[in-house]
Design goal:
Layout lengths: L10 H6 L1 H8 L4 H6 L13 E4 L3 E9 L2 E9 L3 H9 L1 H18 L26 E5 L6 H5 L6 E3 L4 E6 L6 E12 L6 E17 L6 E6 L15 E9 L8 E6 L14 E8 H5 L11 E6 L10 E8 L10
Antiparallel strand pairs: 1-2, 2-3, 3-14, 4-5, 4-7, 6-7, 6-13, 7-12, 8-11, 8-13, 8-14, 9-10, 9-12
Length: 330
C-alpha cells in the first residue's frame, strides 16, 4: 500500500504515525486536549503513554520478571479515531492541503499521510468491535428452565442493552429474557502474558421486581465481531468470568467486573477480538431464586453512549517478551 494514500484513521494510518501520535499524547496538556483520555474514562498518566490505537491507549507501567509491563485501556468502539475525526476535522483538512500542495511538491519527507480525504468509514464501531447490543426473547410463556435454554432470540436491539427477566401472567411461567453482548479489539500480541483484566460497565438502573439477582459476565463465541443475529443467543458459555451481586451494583456509575483467576484470562483473544455477554445470576445458577410476581421484572439497564465514558471498557495489564511494532519505547 502507498502509505501516502492510505485511508485516514485506519489501523494502518495509526501504525504509520504512531511515533508522532505518542509524542503528542505524552504532553500533559496538549495530549488530553486532543485525545480526551478522561472523556472516555481512560485514566492514564500521559508521561507513560507508549501507544495509541483506534480504540485504546497503552501505558508502560514498569517491569515484571525483567519484562516490560503495560496497561492498555480499551474502548468498545473506535473512540480515538472518532475523536480525531470529529473534533479536529478542520485540522486534518488543512494538513491535507499541506501534503498535496507543499510537502509532495517540495518536501516529500514531511508528508503526513493525508493525501486522501477518504476517511475510515466504520468510525462508530471498530473493524472488530461491536457496540453493545441487547438480545431479547419474548416467546409464549414458558418455565424458567425452558426460557433459559432458548437458543434463538426474537429481537436484537442496539439501543436497549438490558439484562432482563420478565414473568408471565400464568403462575411460575416467564415471558421474556434478555442478555447483552459486547466485544473489544484486543490484539495485544500472541506473546503477551496477561496478569489482570477488568471490564467496566455503567449500570444506569436496576429493578428487583422479582427479587435481587446479581449479574455475571461470560465469554461468547458468535462468528461476527460487530453484528448479531437471533441465533447468536446460543453462542455463549455458562461459565462466569466475573460476578457482581445485586447489592454491590451501584447505579449511575461504572461497575468493575474483575477477572479473578489466571484461568479466566483465556477469554482474552490476544490476536483478535474478545467477546462477552452479561447474564442474570439465576439463569447461570439454573434456579429461579426470586419471588414470582405476575408480569414482574428483574432488570439492569446498561449505558452505552458514544464519545463518552459510558461505553463498555476493558483494562488489561500484560507483559511482553518482545515489543510489538505498535509500541515505541519511552
Amino acid at each position: 500500500m502507498n502509505t501516502h494514500n492510505m485511508i485516514v484513521f485506519s489501523k494502518e494510518w495509526f501504525n504509520k504515525h504512531q511515533e508522532n501520535l505518542v509524542k503528542i499524547a505524552r504532553n500533559p496538556f496538549i495530549g488530553e486536549a486532543i485525545f480526551g483520555f478522561s472523556t472516555f474514562g481512560h485514566n492514564v498518566k500521559t508521561n507513560r503513554i507508549v501507544g495509541i490505537r483506534q480504540n485504546s491507549v497503552i501505558e508502560h507501567i514498569g517491569y515484571e520478571n525483567g519484562l516490560p509491563k503495560f496497561r492498555e485501556h480499551i474502548a468498545g468502539y473506535n473512540c480515538y479515531a472518532v475523536r480525531l475525526f470529529e473534533e479536529f476535522n478542520f485540522v486534518w483538512r488543512a494538513i491535507h492541503f499541506w501534503d498535496m500542495e507543499i510537502a509532495n511538491k517540495l518536501f516529500p519527507q514531511y508528508n503526513l499521510g493525508f493525501d486522501t480525504l477518504t476517511v475510515y468509514t466504520d468510525l462508530q464501531s471498530s473493524e472488530t468491535n461491536s457496540i453493545m447490543r441487547g438480545m431479547g426473547v419474548f416467546p409464549t410463556e414458558q418455565s424458567f428452565s425452558d426460557i433459559c435454554s432458548i437458543t434463538t432470540a426474537t429481537s436484537v436491539s442496539i439501543s436497549a442493552p438490558y439484562v432482563n427477566l420478565t414473568a408471565g401472567t400464568t403462575t411460575d411461567l416467564f415471558a421474556g429474557i434478555t442478555r447483552s453482548f459486547f466485544s473489544f479489539y484486543t490484539n495485544i500480541g500472541s506473546n503477551a502474558n496477561v496478569s489482570s483484566a477488568v471490564i467496566g460497565l455503567l449500570i444506569q438502573s436496576k429493578l428487583n421486581g422479582l427479587g435481587e439477582q446479581g449479574i455475571h459476565l461470560v465469554k461468547t463465541t458468535q462468528s461476527s465481531d460487530n453484528t448479531l443475529v437471533g441465533e447468536d443467543l446460543a453462542y455463549m458459555t455458562n461459565d462466569s468470568l466475573s460476578y457482581v451481586s445485586y447489592g454491590d451494583v451501584v447505579t449511575s456509575t461504572t461497575n468493575r467486573f474483575d477477572f479473578p483467576t489466571l484461568n479466566d484470562y483465556s477469554a482474552i483473544n490476544k490476536t483478535g477480538t474478545s467477546k462477552f455477554a452479561a447474564r442474570g445470576e439465576w439463569e447461570l445458577d439454573g434456579t429461579f431464586s426470586g419471588t414470582w410476581v405476575a408480569s414482574g421484572v428483574s432488570r439492569y439497564i446498561i449505558r452505552n453512549s458514544a464519545l463518552s465514558a459510558n461505553t463498555p471498557r476493558l483494562v488489561l495489564e500484560y507483559t511482553l517478551s518482545s515489543f510489538i511494532p505498535l509500541i515505541i519505547t519511552s
